[in-house]
Amino acid sequence: MPPRLDSSTRRRAILDAALPLFARKGFAATTTREIAQAAGVSEALIFKHFPSKSSLYEAIFLGCIDGDPEYARLLALPPSTATLVQLVQALVSYFVLEVPADPEEQARHRLALYGLLEDGDLMRVVYDGLHERFHPTFTASIRAAEASGDLAGGPVEAGTGMWLADHLCTMMASVCLSGRSLVTYSCDRPDLARQAIWFILRGLGMRDEAIAAQEGTTRFPHVPFPSR
């Protein structure tokens, strides 16, 4: 007999099976029976781990955050200019570097786009979860950067700035989902990520000298990316 899987391994297998099915067929057209067959478990076991199909959808997005020690580290940082830069760096690195290079992340991004094209209710829950997790640290770091003189006050409210940065990066990932960038950039991916970080931080009001100082001390992304 095959070895008995522990609870966390079964849960992971269900999520891994659900993601490509949801991304290929959409949420409504995918049945829990199909997910169970792909995961090698019973439908009853799916509902043991996830109260509903919608909670499984939510876990695909938010579970990967809650289970990632790097996100936990970021959210535990004290509010500061450096923390704000690291949050923006993580956002850009994910959408501009990881999504175009990782098939699993591409599937997750396609699923998000499907959710936006449907009635949006499921993605609203996801966005609410992202707001709950990141908004407090992001806005507190904006205030800390202002207090230190690294960021000039302006018309962009901190919470809105977080979402504007997210929307920019989401679109940058979307134009690569065909397997190649549909936009001809005049630079490679790592430099594109660096420019996006500068663009976002400047838009939030951070002074150039503060960005340059953080670039020297904070690890801006330098991740290899295949040729366009």
Layout of helices and strands:
Elements: H1 7-25, H2 32-39, H3 43-49, H4 53-66, H5 69-76, H6 81-101, H7 103-117, H8 121-147, H9 158-174, H10 189-204, H11 208-217
Helix pairs in contact: 1-2, 1-4, 1-7, 4-8, 6-7, 6-8, 6-9, 6-10, 9-10
Please describe what this structure looks like:
The protein has 228 residues and is an all-alpha fold. The protein has two domains: 7-52, Arc Repressor Mutant, subunit A (Orthogonal Bundle), CATH 1.10.10; 68-217, Orthogonal Bundle (Tetracycline Repressor, domain 2), CATH 1.10.357. It has eleven helices and no strands. Helix 1 (7-25) crosses helix 7 (103-117), helix 4 packs parallel to helix 8 and helix 6 packs across helix 7 (103-117). It is globular.
The fold-level CATH name of the largest domain is: Tetracycline Repressor, domain 2
Structural class, from secondary structure content? mainly alpha
- Give a quick account of the main beta sheet: strands, pairing sense, barrel closure: none
**Approximately how much beta-strand content do the residues carry?**
under 5%
CATH architecture of the largest domain: Orthogonal Bundle
Helix and strand run: HHHHHHHHHHH
Apparent shape: globular
Number of strands: 0
Cα-atom Rg, whole angstroms? 19 Å
- Mean of residue pLDDT values: 88
C-alpha termini separation = 47 Å
Output the CATH class name of the largest domain. Answer: Mainly Alpha
